[in-house]
Every structure is written in C-alpha cells, then in structure tokens.
C-alpha cells in the first residue's frame, strides 16, 4: 500500500468558513452505528464474478460464514442480507403477506444458522400489496387488500392508499412474520421521491411506506434496522419523514456494474459519482450546527476481491474504504467473500481503520475545499469529521484523478498532485499530532496544515489529536 508523505508547517491562522457542529444521534429504531455485513446483490447482478454462485440458502450461508472465519464479525460485520429474489415475486400467503421462495430458503433455519454464529438476517422488500392478492383479507381484519390498494406500480403490486384502515395492519402482519423468522434488517427499495423509475410506474411519493414499516417494527417487539433506497431525494419535507423512521438511506443509485457477462463489480467513474452524491447530501447539513438521526448508505462496498474483480485499482480500493468509513456509511460488502485477496483482507480487518467508522458514527465527514474551505466538488479534495468532545478530528485528503463523467468537478489533472488543506481551510486552529491510519505512521505535529502528494485515485486518512 502507498503511504502519502505529509508535511507539517508552523503558524496559526484564523478560520474563514465556519466549521459547524455535525453529529449523528440514535436512529429511530435505536441504533448508534451504521450497519456492517454482506448483501447478495453484487454477485447476483454481476454473475461472472462468481459463476459458481447460486442464489439459495447454501450459497448464502457459504458467503456469510466467511464473516466469521475471516474475523469480520469481530469488527461488527454481522448482517447477512438477502436481496431481490428471496421471496415469492407474484403473491403472498393466504393473507397477502410476503413469503420466502421455499425452493430457495427456509427462513427460520437460515436465521438460526446465522444467529448461532453471531450474525443477523436481512431481507429485501418493495412497496405495495400483490396484485394477485387483492381479494385476500388482511390478517386480523375483515379488510381486503384490493379495497385499500389500487393501480399497478410495475412491480406486480398495487399502490397502498396510505392512511386508510387496513394499510398499517398489513405492514404489521408482514413485519410480525419477519420477527417470527428472526429477521434483523429490512431493506426497503423503490422509495420515492428520488428513486429512478427503472421501467416501473412508482407513485410520486412512497414516503409513507417508510412510516408504516417503522411503526410495524416498533409493534413487532424485535429490533430491526430499516434501510431505504435508492438515490433518495433531499427535499426537507421527505427527508424529515425518512430521518424520523428509517435508520439509513441511500444517497446514490446502485454503484455496481450489472449483467450476466459482468466480471467486475464497479468502476471508478461510478465511485466518483457516489462520493459526489454523498457530498451533495451532506453539504445541506453544514450551514449551521445540526444533529442528524439517520446514517448515509453509499451502497454496497466493493473492496474485498482482486483489483480486476472489484473493477478499481488497489489505491482506489483504499480510497473507497476511506470515504465509506469517514462518512459513517453502511459498510455492506457486495463482494464474493469466499475469494477475498490479501489486500481485501488488509482493508477489511484493520481495527484502526474501523475505529474511524466508530468515530464517524457520531461525527460524519463533510467536504472542505483546499484553498477556500467551501464544500464544492473538487478533484483535489479535503474532508473533515469532528471534532469530538476531546477535540479529535478525522481528515481525508484525496486526488480523485480526472473526472470520468460523473464526479461533478470537471477537471482533468493527471499524475501526482500535491493536496494541501490548511487549518483555515478545515475551519480549525491549534496544534495537532497527526497519525496516518492504515499503518499507524506518525506524521508529526502541525499547527498550520496537512499536505500529501497523491497520485490519481489515492487518498490519505489521518487522525488529528490536539497536543494541548
């Protein structure tokens, strides 16, 4: 791994753009950190990355058992999350509840297997009741699904008439069934406004689905995370609903490549987009002191397999991890866990790096442009998280390389670049001891700036600790 050289100079400066307080507190379902684990969608969508993978209980258990054998569960990687395809797609049970495809999964057996290893079970759902179930009666009521659900959202489902008697009860019955199985995590997809239509006919606003699932989780008596997606809008009214009911929300579209012939998981151009979409989100919460109660989900994390299979260079793999850690994002791996390479293991088992995620769970990073302290998209970028009560900070310096079309910064600087963030840029003052995170390298003490020479796709992750 490349360790950038950091330079320390002397002299204090005054701040220009204030560094307001930004923290994350306990989420609506009671969590104080973001989710870590594995999700099946990466391999499902990029079949050539693991031709032997079949989406069924045996293959899923093989993948998630690695969370234990590789020591990842000890760093909080506990969720084993099934994506689309685990359930029957066209109908529910006799009461219209979502049920597993029994030819693929026995949910109680899978949950038992995972729980016995210290892991947790996640499932994927979309809004609406099944079109095929409109004449079925919602459990515990005399209300038929078709009397409170109408239209066609393109997902073989009708659209709930939120607020009508029966709609909450249906959600309650579904989540109660999940609780019986032992589900610990629900990924609720196709929430609007924000989700691209992707060929379906979603209602303009599905925010109330988030409310209904949150209420149902509370009633179930079982703690579950609620993650909502994909690339959700950032308007205040809907964000307030999501922040009050969900534990994490997607800030971008799918980061993965896709297709039966796709033999790599992602691409650097897509990563540039994902980082910029996080930037666009978080700068909305930096103009004044603010406390959030929802975690960002920058989508699945592809850093565990070889560089060609991940679709990015080894330097870019570290840079991806630095940004997901610093944002306090969900750390949900999409890789083939049975084929982790040495670099992937080094990234995923570094305890010091994961302490940054713990820090960012309360103090997420926000951008501070070198030279101005603003929060615009830039090829040469600085980020800062904190300070915490002790004054400790996390800082990232990055060279994203030339904009590949979606990075938002539209510059094409090539090769090694010097990236310097002064304390004025970062909005801080004082003397700090600086430590590079991945190898624990002591970068000295500075009361003016942090500087690094970074090639395209490289970044520096550092912890700054006050010296007085």
Automatic annotation (TrEMBL):
It holds the Pfam family Melibiase_2. It catalyses: Hydrolysis of terminal, non-reducing alpha-D-galactose residues in alpha-D-galactosides, including galactose oligosaccharides, galactomannans and galactolipids. Transmembrane segments: none annotated. Residues 379-460 form the Alpha galactosidase C-terminal domain. It is an enzyme of class 3 (hydrolase). Keywords: Disulfide bond, Glycosidase, Hydrolase, Signal. Its EC number is 3.2.1.22. InterPro entries: Aldolase_TIM, GH, Glyco_hydro_27, Glyco_hydro_b, Melibiase_C. One of its GO terms (molecular function) is alpha-galactosidase activity. It comes from the Eukaryota. The keyword Hydrolase applies. GO terms for biological process: carbohydrate metabolic process. Belongs to the glycosyl hydrolase 27 family. This is Alpha-galactosidase. It comes from Lentinula raphanica.
